[in-house]
Write a structure and sequence with these properties.
Two copies of one chain form a homodimer. With about 900 residues, the first copy, chain A, is α/β, with parallel strands linked by helices. Helix content of chain A is about 45%, strand content about 15%. Chain A has four domains: about 5-260, 2-Layer Sandwich (Dna Ligase, domain 1), CATH 3.30.1490.20; about 270-370, D-amino Acid Aminotransferase, Chain A, domain 1 (2-Layer Sandwich); about 410-545, Phosphohistidine domain (Glucose Oxidase, domain 1); about 565-660 and about 695-890, Phosphoenolpyruvate-binding domains (TIM Barrel).
Chain lengths: ~900, ~900
């Protein structure tokens, strides 16, 4: 027969830390604290009913296993013995709390009932225990009735009520009404008589509402409480939370029944929360707050200002209050020793709940403390230095989002907490921003030039908007997905961006937008964006920023990261400025240099014009002449970036987009172009139209341009080789990797290589140079290329997976068009995640695996990397490590995130292999 | 040491038929005819120099193996002995021909030299041999000089000349000039004196042109001839031919040196060509033609009308001429016996070249005779009946294109031969057609209603053109590829169609088109199309047709086909009419019924309007109401087709195209719709615009519609099930297979299945029916679906590969947009074929293999088919057999082709396994 109840207390426990699946996080932790020989902390004794009971309960139509009752009674007897009190005893009653505890923490999602065992009959005993503190005892009884009515009778009883009409609300109103009537400002002013009258009123309310009496029987209360906790596992909020956090429904919760201790038994009692290190900064200092004569819920409620436990914990609000260290020096000392023990034992910063009942310290709970990004990094770096943890653990202690948090300015969380969002979209570019709304790229540029901070609001963006996007503080679009043009560009720049914000409707003609809640935002109005969450606020919210270069802990932490990771990290960078940023963030090369960038944004007028001239050429001769004019721009552009990246590889991708992307869309610009090119505008339109495609994604682009117009590839090869050659002549190291995009078969690469080899000879001879180092490789971004990778690797010296396109073609999802169905897919759990954000390992990952394995079957040491957006996504980076890539490449602002994820991949791998060893040892 | 020379003649031979690789087709055949005990035919003796010598020749800088000279001399001695003549002998000279012969026939691509060994010195000997026929001898000498100068001295000498300026042309002009001067109309009128003067003139011309004398030495002539044949292997035309026919360059050619026999030695001499059966009809009758006193080249030249060899071979032109049977009865009888022997030996219809020299019959060559489709089918069926060949051989005797030839009306080849094409495009829909040119779908409909035959000429077609396309005799587009809308639709209908005809430029406004050669074709002008070749003619060319139902041979042949094939063949059909056609062509079910067809073409007004209403609905409620109105149309549509196909499976695909495909494109129609729907036109435009997509191919379509609007799937499920249920109640057998399109993961199918199961119960209960048979499956047309087929098969009971989309996504080729680069790809041999025509086995085929294997790993007896255009492509059908599909589905007009290809797949497999057995036996 299974054991369903695990006792803890008095320096021993049935369970321990490793039994989280059975006892829940809380139960396992209490057992550990109570029973582990290194700890044996003063935990109020109690017992935990296992998660198996919860599973049983739901499988058996809300019945308990038959043996449970007996086990609970036995355990309770042990508690009574330890405490010297008796459950339901009128002279010296034992009161208990009933709490939930799932395998993984679900803070606030399930229910708790306190003060169970308190009845009219046992009240006098409690008064006696509190040295005649009648007010305390009646207040405890009042609290029990309120909580019980709410949690057990109403919620667990399945009574449906309208929002704000629950029993709890009614009771709160009665309480408030009494306070008002008596002119009280605080609950503590309530007299015994007041409490008695409230208790009587509450009991009446219970009877009226539920048609039965408040159960004034300890055992009925106890089983009611236990049942309510189990019921709360399937409460609406808990179910929702699990869905979001991906916690399986069948895990179930444990229930912990534990002796009540009271921090509100008088001035010698207190309750508090402490952290073994500062959770806001990471500083290695004992930090905490407490309240004299209060219960835990008072601390959480935030009605009274808590006092600092020590000098270190003082803040402006609490500086005048007495520290625990001063007020109860011996208790503080005891607590201090305990927190040291706890951190040493758990090897992580602990969040400790404690209560002092009549001068006696109890530890109610301890758990790994939450911390922000700055603190996480500092703690990890410090604990590694202190040899508390090893490098792998340090790396796992910081989450990717905490790294991101460190990198970006953000809206001040305090300001956000008090401001209502007016709209919500997809968080495409993290961080925060504020600015005045503009609706066109031109306006963004104009306003920005006047020194205004602007936020560009558009339905969608296109390459023509790049100038305005660049000038804007942030971008907000009403359409498009996480990998729409706006999202891609913004992420590349580390710019705050929200896309697909369907809550807003834009009126471009009259330059305003309205939100779902009816707010109208006009051009020039201030808004603020939280690009990490996707929320839009009206007005200008303050920003907070961090400085990494002088953040010693960050630098130390990243050294640990770099020590253990195996995957190299490069950046996608198109300009010397981007390249410098990339180096600053620790990039070890450029994994994607897009030759087409020079035709967008600042300084692009002349090259774009020449490109358009080339595109509009009717004959090869015309095209060659335009290309010749374009050549110096391309060469200088490449040379400048190669120069910044001396000693590092730079992967230069040949022209990728379909040519029509560069053709002006509007009549006016087309007219101007016609004039400049001296082509009749109708003829020009005809040529432009002939470039239009039904599915440009699958059209005439990438290497297909290089095959139909070999002279375009030729010009680019020449530019790369001359740039590299000139640098070598200047005594500089350079390593260009020439990358052919959009290939689907090896003969495409071979075709381009013939041109390259010819140009190579010509350049070497022109520059009088023997050798220019280079690699010649390909993107793998078309399913067929991955499937025939053994052939591709015959021609390609390296592969760079273009997972954006691979995902588009592998799924048949156009990333520009997924907005109309992907939300329904996620909503209906058809697919777990947006595959453009995190690599779909099952399908696209399979293509990548096939590609790498087949590629290396031909060329053993084939260099393999990834240069899509996924290169900056932590889960995807880990996948890249797992499948044996050599490097990932991501936007400069993501380099640190990728380095960290790469290190975590190694740490996770190590942990898994250790676990496997453990398992196999056990088997022996 | 390798043997380089193989002798034949006098009833024996060193080689035989099986040595084609070494001796070339001609050499092996001559050896077989001369030496095989069953044959021992009167072949002029000679010898063959092996293809290895050719390879050696090109590897060793055009030098021969040292032993060759001796071997040639030895072989020639044997010939001399047999013929009783001597090479170079002035009294009784032996003359020989030197001919090429590759492993596979390359007709007319390589060179031949005749009459070698004829010199001023040996001329008298030849005169003696011809009983003093001086004219004959000088004419032979004249021919030798012309041929030798052209082939050996100029072409093989590498002398480059402008077109029309070659030595041959110059000599021809000299000959013509002489004839004109003498008022001759025929070469035969040339006197001995004339010939002597020509010979002298020719020799001067040779000296002038090449700076050296015509070699009047037999051995120099012989080696020159041999060298010229080897040289011609790498001649421009031969190289091009090999490229087209995919013949490897390193095969090389053999050279056959053979005794000259002369059909022009007088009235007792003749030359002719005969076939063991009629190559035009397949009738089992000896058929042939001959010319008295002529050389082989005279027959080919077609200057004189050849006479029939027997009564059967008479035609209106030749009916008056004496038959060989009458003229030389004993020679005819000998020939008749030989042809019987040959067919029995080779078990196929033989094409025989013979020469009669002074009453003596010589067989110069025999080979498998070319035949047209009708004849091929008849011969195969007959020979199978005659037990000459087995079923597999019969099936292999007919090519797919011959089957196609049988199915379609075609332009009269005679008319085509005398008409110049005005343009050439891609042959998208085979067969022939003629009609008057119209430029819009509306015009096509209007003119057709007036009884005019029209050809619709457009830049490209769209679903809105379907009406006009249907009414037109044929379709001609200036843009688009082999799988453009026009091509697909036309092929589905078995309609003649030429696409991507860039030779024409359309002026839609003024309704005319111009061709590259300047021809202007106006609306109403007649043109004729050969859709098999892609040629366009001005005017109305006659058509020829075939009748299959009364073609007994065809019916017999298809029975053989059906007996051996394993793959089932279904048809893609959307209407009862199509379904009937499909049955007529032998379809065993419908593999693709497109629900959307009912919104195109005739009778679609009402359903299309309702569909548009549904599309333009703003709420689910509106949508449901429109769907309800649409329901009866859909149900009746499905029911009618199910009824036709009683007892056969019908795979019904849910709505596939993106919704915007159904939204009217032009302002006027949109206005009308707005009025009918009572929606403001601007609002309507907004809604229409919101449906537009950047890459509709990868957009909101297929199952994605069913997930965002489950009510659309629901309506379709209900329509299918009610249709099937009602038929069952009417006592009819029906087997609908419900097919979910555009799936990329199994949960999509599961999502739809939940809806289906609910509707199934509702329909069963409504119709009071216990069970409606059905299968529930999916298209596999997205790479991810193939890669995760093990998962897909958990939900899908059948797979149908949509290889069009699989090719689009696998290659990243939008079939609407490949026109801009695919021609360059084919041209540059980047890919061997248009992958939309024939499955790319290496890449897309790999996806299919993975899909089938993984699918069957989950569901062992998973039904697998294909329903793309490839289902009607013979090579692709064979691939489908190889990878273990259960069926292919193609357009009704392709069903016979697919059945035949499926049978060939089995035959080829059997042959391969026999060959393997042979090889392994040999090894033992």
């Amino acid at each position: 027969m299974n054991k369903f109840v695990y006792f803890f207390g008095g320096g021993r426990a049935d369970g321990n830390e490793s039994m989280k699946e059975l006892l829940g996080g809380k139960g396992a932790n209490l057992a550990e604290m109570a029973g582990h020989p290194d700890l044996r902390l003063p935990v109020p004794p109690g017992f935990t009913i296992t998660t198996e009971v919860c599973t049983y309960y739901y499988k058996h139509n809300k019945k308990y296993p038959p043996s449970l009752k007996k086990e609970v009674e036995t355990a309770l007897k042990k508690v009574e013995k330890l405490m010297g009190r008796k459950f339901g005893d009128k002279d010296n009653p034992l009161l208990v709390s009933v709490r939930s505890g799932a395998r993984r923490s679900m803070p606030g999602m399930m229910e708790t009932v306190l003060n169970i065992g308190l009845t009219e009959k046992t009240l006098p005993g409690l008064i006696k225990q509190s040295n005649g503190n009648e007010r305390f005892a009646y207040d405890a009884y009042r609290r029990l009735i309120m909580m019980y009515a709410d949690v057990v009778m109403e919620k667990a009883g399945g009574i449906e009520v309208e929002d704000g009409k629950g029993i709890r609300k009614t009771m709160d109103e009665a309480l408030e009404s009494l306070k008002k009537q008596k002119n009280y400002t605080s609950d503590t002013q309530l007299s015994v008589e007041d409490l008695k009258s409230l208790i009587s009123e509450f009991k009446n309310l219970v009877k009226q509402r539920f048609g039965r009496e408040f159960p004034d029987d300890p055992w009925e209360q106890l089983w009611g409480g236990i049942g309510a906790v189990f019921a709360s596992w399937n409460g609406r909020r808990a179910v929702e939370y699990r869905r979001i956090e991906k916690i399986p429904d069948d895990w179930g919760t444990a229930v912990t029944v534990q002796t009540m201790v009271f921090g509100n038994m008088g001035e010698d009692s207190a309750t508090g929360v402490a952290f073994t290190r500062n959770p806001g900064t990471g500083e290695h200092q004992f930090y905490g707050e407490y309240l004299i004569n209060a219960q835990g819920e008072d601390v959480v409620a935030g009605i009274r200002t808590p006092a600092p436990i020590n000098e270190y914990s003082k803040n402006p609000q609490s500086a005048h209050l007495p520290t625990l260290e001063k007020l109860m020096p011996s208790v503080y000392k005891q607590l201090y020793i305990i927190q040291k023990k706890l951190e040493k034992h758990y090897k992580d910063m602990q969040d400790i709940e404690f209560t002092i009942e009549k001068g006696k310290l109890f530890i109610l709970q301890c758990r790994v403390g939450k911390r922000n990004g700055v603190a996480a990094v500092r703690m990890a770096a410090d604990m590694y230095k202190e040899k508390l943890i090893d490098a792998e653990t340090a790396v796992m202690r910081v989450s990717s989002s905490q790294i991101i948090e460190l990198l970006l300015p953000m809206l001040d969380p305090k300001a956000e907490a008090t401001t209502k969002a007016i709209a919500k979209g997809l968080p495409a570019g993290p961080g925060g921003a504020r600015g005045r709304v503009v609706f066109t790229s031109a306006d963004a540029v104009e306003w920005a030039q006047k020194g205004e901070k602007v936020i560009l609001v558009r339905e969608e963006t296109s390459p023509e908007d790049v100038d305005g996007m660049h000038k804007a503080e942030a971008i907000l679009t009403s359409k498009g997905g996480m990998t729409s043009h706006a999202a891609l560009v913004a992420r590349g720049w580390g710019k705050c961006c929200i896309v697909g914000c369907s809550d807003i409707e834009i009126n471009l003609a009259e330059k305003y937008f309205t939100t779902k809640d009816g707010t109208i935002i006009k051009e020039g109005d201030w808004i603020s964006l939280n690009g990490t969450k996707g929320t839009v606020y009206q007005g200008s919210l303050p920003l907070v920023d961090v400085d990494l270069e002088h953040n010693k802990s960050y630098q130390e932490f990243m050294k640990i990261v770099d020590k253990i990771r195996k995957l190299k990290v490069r950046a996608n960078a198109d300009t010397p400025r981007d390249a410098k940023t990339a180096l600053k963030f620790g990039a070890e090369g450029i994994g994607l240099f897009r030759t087409e960038h020079m035709f967008y944004g600042e300084g692009s007028d002349k090259p774009l014009f020449l490109l358009r001239k080339m595109i509009m050429s009717k004959t090869e001769e015309e095209r060659r002449s335009a290309l010749q004019e374009l050549f110096p721009f391309v060469k200088n552009d490449i040379k400048a970036t190669l120069e910044v990246m001396q000693g590092f590889p730079v992967t230069i991708r040949l022209l990728d987009p379909p040519l029509h992307e560069f053709v002006p869309h509007d009549e006016e610009k087309l007219l101007a172009l016609g004039k400049e090119l001296n082509i009749d505008v109708n003829e020009l339109k005809r040529r432009a139209d002939s470039l239009k495609e039904n599915n440009p994604m699958l059209g005439h682009r990438g290497v297909r341009l290089g095959i139909t117009y070999p002279e375009i590839s030729e010009m680019q090869f020449r530019a790369i080789l001359e740039a590299a050659g000139e640098l070598i002549l200047e005594g500089k190291k350079t390593m260009p990797e020439i990358m052919i995009p959009v290939t689907c078969c090896s003969s495409e690469i071979a075709h381009q290589r013939v041109i390259f080899d010819r140009v190579y000879k010509e350049v070497c001879s022109k520059l009088k140079i023997k050798k220019i180092p280079f690699m010649f490789g390909t993107m793998i971004e078309i399913p067929r290329a991955a499937l025939t990778a053994n052939k591709m690797a015959e021609e390609a010296e390296f592969f760079s997976f273009g997972t954006n396109d691979l995902t588009q073609m592998g799924f048949g999802f156009s990333r520009d068009d997924i907005g109309s169905f992907l939300p329904d897919y996620i909503e209906n759990k058809i697919i777990p995640d947006d595959p453009f954000q995190t690599i779909d390992q099952e399908g696209i990952g399979e293509l990548i695996s096939i590609g790498i394995n087949r590629g290396r079957s031909t060329r053993k040491h084939l260099e393999v990397g990834i240069c899509g957006e996924h290169g900056g996504d932590p889960e995807s980076v880990k996948f890249c490590h797992k499948v044996g890539m050599n490097y990932v490449s991501c936007s400069p602002f993501r380099v640190a995130v990728a380095r960290h994820a790469a290190a975590q991949a190694v740490a996770e791998e190590k942990k898994q292999s250790t676990n496997k060893k453990k398992v196999s040892k056990k088997r022996k």
